[in-house]
Design brief:
47% of the residues lie in helices and 17% in strands. By secondary structure, the protein is of the alpha/beta class. Among the domains are: 253 residues, Alpha-Beta Barrel (TIM Barrel); 229 residues, P-loop containing nucleotide triphosphate hydrolases (Rossmann fold, 3-Layer(aba) Sandwich); 100 residues. The strands form 7 sheets. Strands 1, 2, 3, 4, 5, 6, 9, 12, 13 and 14 form a 10-stranded mixed beta sheet that branches. It is elongated.
Length: 965
């Protein structure tokens, strides 16, 4: 199955979504007297040979611009012709003019530049109506003409009356508006000589006064030369502390086609369609609709392109639902029961979030159960498909058939329908997503550990460090298992042959007693022969073991079980198997492998024969030596007894020595594993120190980031206590049996687990016990003299827990596996920094649900660039917080990450300036549908918002009248 049709459908639906377009509203063409002037930022200095409308239009359509206003000096006919010649598929060209205006006397020494822009295909005649009658016709104008003796506000009003927009041009240059006046109170504008030297304070005064004047004059937008200047035109204005902004555009002022593609001079304006109407609307909402190059991400964030839900038997809640999501803010709206949460829960299921449902448990509210019930009611028998655009640009299809008995069954496909080897997208970093259903944001604030996890995501590259810590902790567990396995093997050797190894000293002493110098001389050659034979027998054993392994390998059958599978397979599969002659291929390759193995086994057998011959030769030598001893001793009974006793004592000692060799070999393995364990433990301690350092370094910056959207009544801060999250450590010390009445007295009453946890980490305590270094608890003796734990008792405690010792009889080190397991398990107990969110100085887990939500919202929104999905983010928040904080978060962050919300609050949709609104409707109690979708620029969408979220037009108007606005 290919998914190209689904992608095409999603793309068609996204055509209704508003998005940022590259816009230049101040440029010059062949109609300007100064066309061809090179822009200072231009990289190439040669102008293309463009000398007519056709070549100009051809070159124009090769630029990256979506909307262009051609604003020649005091002329517009060329702009009108180009606009008329463009088609809807081309760049949107708006005709305009750059106008030279001199205010009336006594300020007529100053010339202002204003750009007027008109709708596409506006006629030359219509545009020229804004010009006074004393301006000559265009064929007689050279572009330097001036409009004089006209009030600026009246002129702007006149442009508006004829359907145009007015932009204050060059406001920061010597020709600009800002350099030509200062305002005195509310009485008017006093112009001054632009050559006058101003103090910084005077410049600041003019700058601040200028902003109010801009609003009063009626400009639709202003031009600035630098991105930093934009912030100057956002400010608190009026008695109600209402923030007001004027649209600020980057000045391009291109005088060549080539200069239109200087990207750092493009203004990015959000529109559904690149047209004059959408441009006009965007200028009215500059906070959310206008961005400069530095505000727009250079690379796309990962995002969900849309969703398709198809019911297999027409009994699903959605018969067929197809919806596209904006790259920015998408709002799902509709009456209760229309399927908003069903869409979010479908996404939860596909991304594998059902596996973590238990994490959202709340006291008195079984949220996991409610989620599963909703999924079963709305998604049973449904196939869910989600096109996902990864950060690397690849688009993959995530597909799952809902199964209430299985938390995850998602498959991943390419757009061409090829299955991809992605076993679990939940743990795969290529498909990130953050999803919060009913009241889940508030549940994050209940646990400090989850707050810490979210704070960690605000530190760039920190996930790699935490992943490294997890790997080290996992490695520590694996090393414990290996050490204990080695300990088990040591114990097995110790117990072998009724613990014969413990007779070592006895056997050695007895042999030395019997091995008199006379007897030793008699047996010296026999001892040498026995040593040779021992070496050869060991080599023989090793060869036999290797050969046995090869023998087992030759018996492997790669076709085992295949016959049964073929019998159970369909006829098509059986035919495919036979057509590819798979039986013959398998038999041929198996035979070749077996042949090589047999060759290798033959080489080993030849080697074994050589070793056996050497052993036989040494054995004959040994027998001859023993025969020689018997002949030497003859019938001397005393010597025969001494020789026989010495022989049997030697045999016993050799058996014990063989056990000791095996034991010591294994103990070398044990020690090596222990060295690796110590290294691993030290790395964890060192890495934890680094983690704490990074958190401390970033704490202040993160606090500043979190407070970007806080209200005056709400200050967010971070509590960070290095290494103080030791609840698991205390619990382990309490329940593991490390402390007993015998080794620590009445340790519960003394709160020994808590107090020990304050002076060391689990790894530090484990290593101190292994090293019998009780000084690690010295701080307790000093800080808490009443603890009942002095140095002597601490040493006794450590001695009772120490797992190592020596067996004197066997003269070998030994370990107590039970104690060892306890110490190694102690080192695996997790501890971390204690870190959490404070709201106005109080830990959020101790506050109300609404307060928790208000503190956690900035955190979940800021942590990363993964798509963020929230079901009813307004839950637990009062409308003031929704309007003053939540809306700001959504409006500012949606450019950096995709945000999808289901909501009943109009502030989120309208003030958040949703790029895509998906309107759902409830056909019945068991069926919903997608009624419409599109940006908030769409009249149908606006009507739906008023009807569904404002209670209808009449209710909206009644409230407006009640408020007195």
């Amino acid at each position: 199955m290919e998914y190209n049709e689904l992608i095409t459908t999603i793309d068609d639906l996204k055509s209704r979504v508003s998005k940022f377009r590259r816009v230049v509203l101040h440029s010059h063409s062949l109609g300007s007297y100064d066309y061809g002037t090179v822009h200072p930022s231009a990289k190439q200095q040669e102008t293309r040979p463009i000398d007519d409308e056709a070549s100009y239009l051809e070159a124009l359509n090769k630029t990256k611009i979506d909307v262009l206003a051609i604003t020649d000096h005091m002329k517009c006919s060329f702009a009108c012709n180009i606009s008329e010649a463009t088609s809807p598929s081309d760049i949107c060209v708006l005709p305009g003019m750059e106008l030279n205006i001199r205010p009336p006397a006594p300020w007529n020494n100053f010339k202002l530049h204003i750009v007027a822009v008109f709708p596409e295909k506006c006629s030359h005649e219509q545009m020229c109506k804004i010009l006074p009658s004393d301006i000559p016709s265009e064929k007689d104008r050279d572009g330097t003409e001036e409009i004089t003796n006209i009030d600026l506000a009246d002129f702007i009003s006149n442009v508006h009356e004829y359907g145009g927009l007015c932009i204050a041009a060059h406001i920061d240059s010597e020709r600009g508006v800002r350099k030509t006046f200062r305002q005195l109170g509310n009485d008017g504008i006093l112009f001054y000589d632009s050559t006058e030297q101003l103090t910084p304070e005077q410049e600041k005064q003019i700058s601040e006064q200028f902003k109010d004047w801009l609003l009063l004059a009626g400009f639709d937008a202003i031009e600035v030369a630098k991105e930093d200047d934009k912030q100057h035109y956002r400010w608190v204005y009026g008695s109600d502390d209402q923030r007001t902004s004027i649209a600020v555009l980057l000045r391009n002022d291109a005088h060549r086609i080539e200069d239109l593609d200087i990207e750092e001079l493009h203004t990015h304006i959000k529109m559904t369609k690149p047209c004059f109407e959408d441009l006009s609307q965007a200028l009215r909402f500059p906070d959310t609709r206008i961005r400069f190059p530095g505000d727009v991400p250079t690379s796309p964030s990962p995002r969900i392109l849309g969703i398709e839900i198809v019911a297999g038997d027409d009994n699903g809640f959605f018969k067929t639902l197809q919806a596209a999501f904006s790259d920015n803010l998408t709002c799902l709206i509709g009456p209760r029961g229309s399927g908003k949460s069903a869409i979010i829960e479908a996404i939860r299921y596909v991304f594998g979030f059902n596996k973590t449902l238990d994490q959202i448990q709340q006291p008195g509210a079984d949220l996991p159960k409610k989620v599963r019930e909703l999924q079963e009611a709305t998604l049973t028998n449904c196939v869910i498909r989600i096109p996902y655009a990864r950060k690397d640009g690849q688009i993959h299809i995530l597909e799952a058939t809902f199964d209430p008995k299985q938390d995850y069954n998602t498959k991943v496909y390419s757009v061409d329908g090829n299955g991809l080897d992605v076993r679990d997208i939940f743990t795969n970093n290529n498909y990130p997503l953050r999803l919060f259903g009913w009241s889940e944001i508030e549940t994050l604030g209940r646990e400090a550990s989850r707050q810490r996890d979210l704070l960690d995501r605000l530190i760039t590259g920190f996930s790699d460090v935490l992943e490294e810590r997890l790997k080290l902790r996992t490695a520590l567990e694996i090393k414990r298992s290996e050490i204990l396995s080695s300990s088990t093997r040591l114990g097995e050797i110790l117990s072998r042959d009724n613990e014969e190894i413990k007779r070592y000293k006895e056997c050695k002493a007895e042999f030395e007693r019997l091995n008199t110098p006379e007897i030793d001389t008699l047996f010296s050659e026999i001892d040498i022969a026995k040593e040779k034979l021992a070496l050869l027998n060991k080599l023989k054993s090793n060869i036999e073991n290797w050969s046995s392994t090869i023998e087992d390998a030759t018996k492997h059958d790669v076709i085992a079980g295949i016959d049964d599978l073929i019998t159970e397979s369909s006829e098509q599969v059986q035919s495919w198997w036979k057509a590819n002659d798979m039986d013959t291929q398998i038999a041929s390759r198996s035979a070749k492998v077996r042949e090589e193995l047999i060759k290798g086994k033959g080489i080993l057998e030849a080697f074994l024969n050589e070793v056996e011959k050497n052993a036989e030769e040494v054995n004959r030598e040994l027998q001859e030596k023993e025969k020689g001893i018997r002949e030497t001793i003859g019938e001397e009974v005393t010597k025969q007894v001494a020789a026989d006793l010495r022989r049997t004592a030697d045999e016993r000692l050799q058996r014990v020595n063989q056990l000791r060799r095996e034991y010591n070999d294994e103990f070398k393995v044990f020690n090596q594993l222990f060295e690796e364990w110590h290294t691993n433990a030290d790395e964890i301690n060192k890495l934890q120190e680094s983690i704490c350092s990074k958190r401390t370094q970033k704490k202040e910056k993160i606090e500043e980031t979190l407070n970007r959207f806080s209200t005056p009544e709400m200050t967010i801060s971070i509590r960070l206590n290095p290494g103080s999250d030791r609840d698991s450590f205390i619990e382990h010390l309490t329940d593991s049996g490390l402390f007993t009445q015998q080794n620590a007295g009445n340790w519960r009453a003394k709160k020994l687990p808590l107090k020990v946890s304050l002076v060391c980490t689990p790894i530090q305590l484990a290593k101190a016990i292994l090293n019998l270094d009780s000084s690690i608890l010295k701080g307790l003796f000093v800080a808490d003299p009443d603890i009942g734990l002095d140095e002597e008792i601490a040493e006794r405690l450590f001695s009772s827990l120490h797992p190592s010792g020596v067996d004197d009889d066997a003269d070998i080190p030994i370990v107590n596996k039970g104690k060892l397991d306890k110490i190694l398990s102690l080192a695996e107990v997790e501890w971390d920094d204690e870190e959490g969110i404070l709201l106005n100085g109080q830990a959020v887990q101790n506050l109300s649900p609404g307060q928790r939500s208000s503190a956690m919202l900035p955190l979940i929104a800021l942590v990363e660039d993964a798509p963020l999905i929230v079901d009813q983010p307004e839950d637990n928040l009062d409308n003031r917080l929704v309007g003053r904080m939540l809306v700001d978060i959504l409006a500012n962050l949606k450019e950096k990450r995709q945000i999808i919300v289901a909501t009943h609050n109009p502030n989120i949709v309208v003030s958040g300036d949703a790029e895509q609104v998906i309107v759902l409707d409830a056909i019945s109690i068991s069926e919903g549908e997608c009624k419409d979708s599109g940006s908030i620029d769409n009249d149908v969408i606006v009507k739906s918002i008023i009807e569904l979220l404002e209670g209808g037009k009449e209710a909206f108007l009644v409230r407006r009248r009640r408020y007195g606005y």
